[in-house]
Amino acid sequence: MQPVTTVTGTAYPWGAKNIDTDIIIPAHWLKTITRTGLSRGAFETVRAQPGNVFDDPRYSGAPILIAGDNFGCGSSREHAAWALADMGVQAVIAPSFSDIFSGNAFKNGIVPVVLPQEAVDRLVEVAKDQPITVDLETMTVTTPYQDRFVFELDAFRRQCLMQGLDEIGLTMAKDTAISKFEGAVDQHRPWVASRSGYAGIAVNGIGRT
User: Fold this and answer.
1) 78-115: pLDDT as tens digits
2) Over the stretch 25-81, which tens digit does the pLDDT of each residue have?
3) Best label site of 65, 109, 148, 161, fewest CB within 10 Å?
4) What HEC string does the chain produce?
C-alpha cells in the first residue's frame, strides 16, 4: 500500500446520499478476485445516465470524490473500495460512511474524510472548477478560496495510511519479534513447532510408544 499524506487535485462534485456498495460496484463484477480492472464497472448504473459526473472530462482521473451522507452502505463487499482505488480515488469526503466501507477504505489506502453537511455542500460547489487538498499532516481540507475544514481520524489508522501499512504490512513490520517468538517456541515447546520433527510424545505418558 502506498503511503498517503496529502491528496490534491480535482474532485468529483457529486454529493449523492445513501450510495450503497452495489451502486459503487454492481454484484456481477464480484466474480474477479483481483483488485485491478474494477474501475470499468465502478458506478455503472450512474454512468448509464447522460451527463453524469463520472464521465465528465473535467473530472477525469480525479483523486477525490465528494459524496453525500451514508456513503458505502449496503453489503460489505471490499470490491467497492477496490473499484474506487482502481479509479484513482485516494480520498472520499462525506458527512458519514458505513462502518464496514470505512474500514475497507482504510485497508486500501483511501482516506474517508467526515465533514459536516455544510462543509460538504461548500466543497461540492468549489470542486466544480477548483482543486481541493486533503492533508493528513494538518488534518484539514482546503481550497484555493481559503476554505479550511478540520477533520478527525482514528490515530492508528491515520498512521497506517501515512506509513502505507495495511494488515500484511503491519505483520511484516513485526517480523523480528515474530521470529524471536518462534525461536522461543522451538526451544521451550518443541511439540508445538512442527518443523522440529518432534514425534509428539505425550506428556504424562499418554500415547507414549
Assistant:
1) 999 999 999 999 999 999 999 999 999 999 999 999 99
2) 999 998 888 888 999 999 999 999 999 999 999 999 999 999 999 999 999 889 999
3) 148
4) CCCCCEEEECEEECCCCCCEHHHHCCHHHCCCCCCCCHHHCCCHHHHCCCCCHHHCHHHCCCCEEECCCCECECCCCCHHHHHHHHHCCCEEEECCECHHHHHHHHHCCCEEEECCHHHHHHHHHHHCCCCEEEECCCCEEECCCCCEEECCCCHHHHHHHHHCCCHHHHHHHCHHHHHHHHHHHHHHCCCCCHHHCCCCCCHHHCCCC
